Amino acid sequence: MNDGSLFADNSSLYLYGGGISVAYPAIGAPTVLPPDGVWQYDLGSGQWSMAALSGVPVNRSIIGMSAQSFTTSVAYYLSGVKEPASDPYFWTLPSATPYMDQGLLWFEEGSLTIKNYSTTGLNEYGTAAAGFMVLIESIGSHGVLVAFGGISNPPGKPMNVTDEYDASLQWNLSSVSVYDIGGQAWYQQTTAGDIPRWRYSGCSVVVSAPDQSSHSIYVFGGWGDSFGESDGGVYVLLIPSFQWIRVNTESNERSRHHCSLIGNNTMLVVGGITPSYNNPRPYDPSGCDTTAMFSQGLGMFSLNNHSWSTNYDPVAAASPYQIHPNIASVIGGNANGGATAMNPERGFSTKALGVLLTGNQNVVTFESSTGSTPSTTPKPVATPKHKMALSVGSIAGIVASCVFGLAVGMALVLILYLRRRQSSNQFQATEMSDQIARFELPDSRDKVFELGATEKPLPATPDEKGFRELEGHQWVPEIIGHDATDR
User: What gap in Å lies between CA 34 and CA 51, rounded to an integer?
Assistant: First the structure.
């Protein structure tokens, strides 16, 4: 399955999302879509099977963004795209068109439970695909997700494959979103520094300073607007200062690959293809990487010295992560932490976000809606040392004015009260109707967030059709020779 997400615990691998290759299927790859759900690979028996899920219904998406907690065994899958090559029901419909879907799926691996949470506040449309997302577990009560890049489109709006190059759909890297898992709230934040050009289908890992004073999100590869705007450099987004810096300028163009943090300080790059001139998805041999760096489909980048390597040194990888001097020169401190840049250049978008990321109540904030300059909580105004004395006559005049004003105010209050009582009976029925008409949705942690209104009718969703089997195929619950990463 192409462009899916692979999760793991101590006993199993879990595959969610992805689609089959229609135009250029790989040898041994499925030519008919497997049923919707999460596929589980038992590490002991070496067998694939459908996971016995509970919770909300699962319909397979493609190119969504994912992350996993290895301490809680909870995986997260953000938004994505529904399309015929990923959804079995769409596969049976002629002229079915892809569309983006909202929602943040939580997959609890221990209980095999799927939950769906709101993405309102993620960005303008609450959708995202083919971008970057990492989990920083040491922030907040349950960690935070940081997402950026890729594309976003109104949920349910029909799309074409070429829409991913439309500038109006691009999620610029000058803005990122932060999700507080414990508080279930999204925040948007602007970035500064050497902001990378827009890109999608790259990969990222995150590593924290030894003292947790800063967190570095390493971003590698991806495809830009064109071949000329795609670079193979490595960038770092620094949290909580939200500064971008470029730490490696080598040209290792790559897309549709996967990154993992191995040991304490090594970014392992697996799979992917090499974009050719104005062709981000070459399906012929031109997409195969022939450079020495990725000749085996693997690449290793040291987060300690910011250099690429073709050999893995387990001893060096096991050594503690140390902040590179290029990063320390931007955020302050040293190899072990001690960052002094704790606020973004223009301040946090909200005080709540600043407190969440830093634990400091006196953070710098700004109003993104008005574009005002950063400001902190106003300090009390000092009382002047020299006060002007008032005469006895002045004091008497002030007292008389206050007594007269108080009498007038009481008279006005009495008049308003009598009028309100006189008219209350006339509006009692209307007020009761209004109260009946107003209601709030209950705060259910397990509710499904459905798509909003669309511009034109869409094919029926799997939830509307109920369960349906594909005719003419004897499905065997096993995936042979294929995983979630292109090679």
Answer: 13
Residue range 262-269: mean pLDDT, rounded: 95
Kindly report, residue by residue over 303-336, the tens digit of the pLDDT: 999 999 988 889 999 999 999 999 999 999 999 9
Output the six-digit token pair for 191. Answer: 């970035």
- Residue position matching structure tokens 């209004």: 434
- Condensed to tens digits (0 to 9), the pLDDT of residues 366-387 reads 754 344 433 333 322 232 333 3
**How many angstroms separate the CA atoms of 204 and 197, rounded?**
15
Tokens standing for residue 262: 């191995």
At 260, phi and psi to the nearest 5?
-140, 150
Smallest Cα–Cα separation from 194: which of 245, 239, 230?
245
d(CA 332, CA 261): 24
In this prediction, residues 30-40 reach a mean pLDDT of 86
d(CA 9, CA 40) in angstroms, rounded, equals 11
Do 280 and 223 contact (CB within 8 A), yes or no? Answer: yes
**Nearest residue to 42 via CA among 1, 6, 77, 8:** 8
CB neighbour burial string for 268-284, b if at least 16 within 10 angstroms, e if fewer: bbbbbbbbeeeebbeee
Centre a 10 Å sphere on the Cβ of residue 92 and count the other Cβ atoms it contains. Answer: 15
| Polymer length in residues for the chain | 487
* Chain centroid, CA 128 distance in Å: 8
List, for residues 129-177, the tens digit of each pLDDT value: 999 999 999 999 999 999 999 999 999 999 875 666 678 899 999 999 9
Q: Which of 13, 22, 35 is nearest to 469 (CA)?
A: 35
Matching residue, tokens 């890049």: 149
Peptide bond into 240 cis (omega under 30): yes
Closest alpha carbon to 180 in 268, 118, 244, 112: 118
| Exposed / middle / buried, residue 393 (Cβ in 10 Å: 0-12, 13-18, 19+) | exposed
Conformation bin of residue 232: beta by default, left when phi > 0, alpha when psi is -120 to 50: alpha
Q: What is the pTM of this model?
A: 0.75
**Is residue 352 exposed (0-12), middle (13-18) or buried (19+ Cβ within 10 Å)?**
middle
- Residue 416 identity: L
